[in-house]
Design a protein that fits this description.
The complex is a heterodimer of chains A (114) and B (112). By secondary structure, chain A is mainly β. Chain A has no helices and eleven strands. In chain A, the strands form two sheets. In chain A, strands 2, 4, 5, 9, 10 and 11 form a six-stranded mixed β-sheet that branches. In chain A, strands 1-3-8-7-6 form a five-stranded antiparallel β-sheet, with no helix packed on it. By secondary structure, chain B is mostly beta strands. Chain B is 0% helix and 52% strand. Classes of the chains: A mainly beta (114), B mainly beta (112).
Chain lengths: 114, 112
């Protein structure tokens, strides 16, 4: 089952604009991660935010986490055509008996128009 | 290059057949995850191994099985294949709990 749900499912913006993607999840987490996938390729890790953190930055990326609302957002500033990809949030959570799962949502497909 | 190697890259096989997908994790990573991605779908978690032991199981069909060997490479076995099993299968590895996962480039399985 999907733990995270990204919103919107698809987003189309002009180059130079900011892109915001949201993720909601259902259970308590250890951390939340964002990944990027170019069409048909492997996923690439972008950023990890721990459950006790509220905001994190990496280059043009800004991630926020609100554990009380069980939600996160990914902001890409000054977008470029090369940012065109699908973006996934993934939650790292205990799955019982000392095990943990990294569970992905269905992703947001971002198109940046030059 | 993530350091995770998956073979083969592409596989075309007939319904009813059995295939084995192979994954070599990043050097030093003890955790291996397997995911299935169907067209325009998110990643479905199948199974996770840690240092040779199964640690978590997701939506993995009984026709599918996996193992992690002493050298830490992993194999995903898919049997009695159906058309609906056509998908991208990804392997990922991570060092320890709570850290980022590194993904291979995937095996594209087509069942005809």
């Amino acid at each position: 089952s999907q733990q995270g749900e990204e919103d919107p499912q698809a987003l189309s913006i002009q180059e130079g604009e900011n892109a915001t993607m949201n993720c909601s999840y259902k259970t308590s987490i250890n951390n939340l991660q964002w990944y990027r996938q170019n069409s048909g390729r492997g996923l690439v890790h972008l950023i990890l935010i721990r459950s006790n953190e509220r905001e994190k930055h990496s280059g043009r990326l800004r991630v926020t986490l609100d554990t009380s609302k069980k939600s996160s957002s990914l902001l890409i500033t000054a977008s470029r055509a090369a940012d065109t990809a699908s973006y996934f949030c993934a939650t790292d959570a205990e799955s019982g008996a000392g095990s943990y799962q990294l569970t992905f949502g269905k992703g947001t497909k971002l198109s940046v128009i030059p | 290059d993530s350091g995770v190697t998956q073979t083969p890259k592409h596989l075309i096989t007939a319904t009813g057949q059995r295939v084995t997908l192979r994954c070599s994790p990043r050097s030093g990573d003890l955790s291996v995850y397997w995911y299935q991605q169907s067209l325009d779908q998110g990643l479905q978690f199948l199974i996770q191994y840690y240092n040779g032991e199964e640690r978590a199981k997701g939506n993995i069909l009984e026709r599918f099985s996996a193992q992690q060997f002493p050298d830490l490479h992993s194999e995903l076995n898919l049997s009695s294949l159906e058309l609906g099993d056509s998908a991208l299968y990804f392997c990922a590895s991570s060092a320890i709990k709570g850290t980022e996962a590194f993904f291979g480039q995937g095996t594209r399985l087509t069942v005809v």
